[in-house]
Amino acid sequence: MNRLASLLPVAALFVVTGCKPEAEPDGAQPVGAAQAQPVGNALSSSVLESAGRYSPDGAAFGGSCTVVYDGDSTDVDGDEIPDNGNSVTATNCLSERGDAVANASYSVDDTLVEAAAAVFPFNFSISGHWDITGTDGETTLSVAADRTITGNSDADSFGGADSASVSADVTAPNAHFSSDESYSWDTEYVHQGPLFGDGLMSLNGEWNVEMEAEQGENSAAVYANATVATLGTGLQLSTACASHVVGGTMEATYDAGASENDESAQVTATLTVVFSACDVWTTTYTEALTPGS
């Protein structure tokens, strides 16, 4: 649901700041300064998805829904995820931030990793496919996603892996936006507070995105195949914030192609996302030039 709330406005941001595609793949160009903010929003959305499972409310994927399980809803490890909730239907899902409504269907398979659920209710392996549609009244969103999460915990820390592929299609008045995004990263949580979910999260791995947008006669197509890492001690998480992240810095670094002035020189681009408060972040774009031989 964090993704629904964040992607609805991304289309408008992207088509306004985008420029005409000139490079590979499929006519797209590497993400540049003009697209940094909306593409940073997409990265932030994925970060929030990973942070959302560090919550005292259980390992749900955010928001509230009316959920019907067509399968075995037994929950052996007590983590609020059914052991085999095949063909799950979730209707009238309210975003944690209250600005979008969606319906979803997905399958889920949750198996106990280690018998220590009483320490933290988050010892699990979960995989699923989601189909989501939603609207804010003017803009409509369709999302297909596959996601796999594994995790294990001890007395004061939690680690695991999170991988996903997400295809999104957004239609707004006189505008259209689509994206294909995938990520695969390791996460580590260190508990620092009265509730599970108050602490620090580190996230490191790979993140890839391709985006296309049209508004009237204007169009844009960009991509980035990036390495992502959390800087410093980690992202600060707080249970007082519905989207969990209240501080910290993420970096996504990728190859931005050859220099315009010297085709033998390569440009490395970096998107730096700084979270400064609940639902507040900024993205900056920088370049570094590696001279050719």
Q: Can you walk through the features of this model?
A:
This protein is mostly beta strands. It has one domain. Helices cover 11% and strands 53% of the residues. It contains 2 helices and 14 strands. The chain has helices at residues 2-17, 36-51; strands spanning 29-30, 64-69, 88-94, 101-112, 124-135, 140-153, 157-172, 175-191, 199-215, 218-230, 235-237, 245-258, 266-277, 280-290. Strands 1, 2, 3, 4, 5, 6, 7, 8, 9, 10, 11, 12, 13 and 14 form a 14-stranded mixed beta sheet that branches. Helix 1 runs antiparallel to helix 2 (36-51). The longest helix has 16 residues, at 2-17. The radius of gyration is 19 Å and the shape is globular. The termini are far apart.
pLDDT < 50 stretches: 1-24, 58-63, 95-100, 113-119
Q: Major sheet: size, sense and barrel closure?
A: 14 strands, mixed
**What is the oligomeric state here?**
single chain
3D shape: globular
Order of helix and strand elements from N to C terminus = HEHEEEEEEEEEEEEE
The total tally of domains equals 1
Structural class: mainly beta
- How far apart are the termini? 48 Å
Secondary structure tally: strands: 14
Radius of gyration: 19 Å
The whole-number mean of residue pLDDT values reads: 75
Strand content: over 45%
Helix percentage? 10-25%
Number of helices: 2
